[in-house]
Amino acid sequence: TYSISLFVYAETTMPAPFAKNLINEEGDVYDPDARKQAERHLALEKFSKNFNFDWNQSATINQNKTKVAELDVFLKKIEDYNKLSKEDQKLAGHLSYQLGTFYTHIAHDPNTGIDKLNKAEALLMDKEAKARCYNQLAYAYAQKYSTERYAADREKALYYSGKVISEFYPNVKNQDVAFAYSIKGRIQKEAHDYSAAQESFKTALDIYESLPNGKEDAYARTKSKLADTLLEQNKEDKAALAMLEELKQYWAKKQDANQNPYAANNLISLGQAYLRIGNIKEAQAAIKQAISIYENVYGAGSKQLALPYELLSQTYQQEGKPKLAAAYERKAASMGKV
Fold this sequence. Notes:
The protein is mostly helical. The chain has helices at residues 2-12, 16-22, 32-50, 61-65, 68-76, 86-105, 110-123, 127-148, 151-168, 175-190, 194-210, 217-232, 237-252, 261-277, 280-298, 306-318, 322-335. α6 (86-105) packs antiparallel against α7 (110-123) and α10 (175-190) packs parallel to α12 (217-232). The N and C termini lie far apart (49 Å).
């Protein structure tokens, strides 16, 4: 039975305080609270082993989608995290961090993501883990600001990214600082402070370029945001288009290109760039490829498809095909706004 396996685990691998409280000399259970702690410890270890979602690794998206709800319910049942052992607090903190990043990057639910990330930040003690929590909180508030436009969310995003830059790693160049500058640039772009956004994105890119293996996915995402910023200003369209074409080739070489939402995001930007200069066929090709990837990642009914359908409608309108334009406009409307 499960209780027998628990005894064996306690006698062989459980930290001493748990084993002492759980089992007496005859092997009888006499402390129900200790037993509950031991069972929770086993569950935390199991979830930590089986839930391997990493927002930077798109290959981990589909394999963990079905595990999110169960993990979320389990963590909610923990009544007092302060009563957990230090080891279990660390396990629960990392799982909360993973959930938070899933809700923001994949589910596009920043409010739930913020709740999980706040829990993670309270539980994770080491500097590196806290800095990453702050960066992800900055990302979540930036995501909120882009859709809800509340100044308080903008300020919180700038606060969390600023803490990483100025307090966690002052005068340091590393991946976390580069990411913080990238989020800062995103917020400035959303606020239409384009000059400041360009400066932040370029600072992030300079840091990535200075690091060993720095010109990878995070670098590509930041460069795509810089291209978007140039496009929104209606200037340097050719430079932005060249950046996005270069990034298209980068993402195409990835093994998970057809399951990678960041590859799709770049294709959306590329489609918009081609649409801006009147190259309708290239715009349609890029947008349709992005739709295919979004469907693989989010599903055919996801609200993430609203934007590419709307853009596709615009291409058909410019091409003189009003029926197709209207059809895709209706599809975009049925998905709701992102």
